[in-house]
Amino acid sequence: MKPLFFLLILALASTSAHAGPMRDRYLGRMKERSVGEVTDPAKILPGATVQTVAYGADAAQTLDVYAPPSPRDAPIIVMVHGGGWRLGDKASPGVVDNKLKRWLPQGFIVVSVNYRMLPDAGVDLQAQDIAHAIAYVQKEAPRWGGNGNKVIAMGHSAGAHLVALVSADPAPVVAAGGRAWRGTVVIDSAALDVTAVMQKRHPRLYDDALGNDPIFWANVSPAARLKPGAVPMLLVCSSQRPDDPCADARAFSAQLAAQGQDTQVLPQAMSHMAINRDLGLDTAYTAHVDDFIHTRLADQD
Fold first, then answer.
1. Is residue 27 exposed (0-12), middle (13-18) or buried (19+ Cβ within 10 Å)?
2. SS3 at position 27
3. Does the keyword Manganese apply (predicted)?
4. φ, ψ for residue 262 (rounded to 5)?
């Protein structure tokens, strides 16, 4: 999906002027356009493969497994797309292309996840989907030539919120048959403290996704759900956004650090779209994320 389309849909979703049937029709059309075609990894790395598999019974509960040639004991990146909890697709070029170009040649398996979205599933059920997807990847990794003990989660925007939520409290992953993983890269979420977000001025799309129940806010808030067993996190944030997600990232990072978890905040002077699309290019930004990933994979604790 092109960035212009994504920005337009967020604008429509965030203003009451476009509420009602017209907005719903446009959302429907944009949801259709957001579905991407699976990238051919062999064009990136000769011999690389991709397969689409189901991790649940719902048609939306699928993931694409991109593997380098003849993987053996390969580390795994699990990527969760954004889209306001309502749109987006695992195969969108902005979600996977540059990440494949970076990490497939390093021998990583890259898994891109789809999940149920609004209006079919609320944010709490979306988080359950991500928990089940991570547990599924850990279990099935040997079949793909991967190592289920070497998993890094990654997510952007709404996907960043979801991976932060299950990283703050990995209990749902454990309940699904999985275990805590090595680390998580949270890419530009502005919903790390959902209660605080909902108590100040915010885009209407947050009302659509998060409702008006403070109990629900706390249930889907990484800050409120944070447990001592939280997964180490790198919190990437755009310093260009007017809603200042970096302030939220610093506050959440302080919570993590107070509990002794490994955490970093990485501000970037990039747009909300570019901070995801360009991850994987040969930049200092990508190198920093790469360092975090390799450091977490090397940690035996």
1. buried
2. helix
3. no
4. -70, 125
Whether the Cβ atoms of residue 124 and residue 209 lie closer than 8 Å to each other:
no
Helix, coil or strand: residue 2: coil
Q: Return the axis-axis angle of helices 21-33 and 3-13, rounded to nearest 10°.
A: 150
Q: Residue 280 — φ and ψ, nearest 5°?
A: 120, -20
Continuous segment of H or E residues that includes residue 166: helix 158-168
Residue 246 pLDDT greater than 70, yes or no: yes
167 is a catalytic site residue: no
Q: What's the pTM?
A: 0.90
| Farthest CA pair distance, the chain | 54
Q: Which CATH number fits domain 37-298: 3.90.76.10, 3.40.190.10, 3.40.50.1820, 2.30.42.10?
A: 3.40.50.1820
Contact 272, 241 (CB under 8 A): yes
* Residue 35: per-residue pLDDT: 54
Question: Catalytic: which of 34, 92, 112, 157?
Answer: 157
Of 30-39, 91-100, 287-296, the poorest mean pLDDT is in: 30-39
* Structure letter (DSSP) for residue 54: E
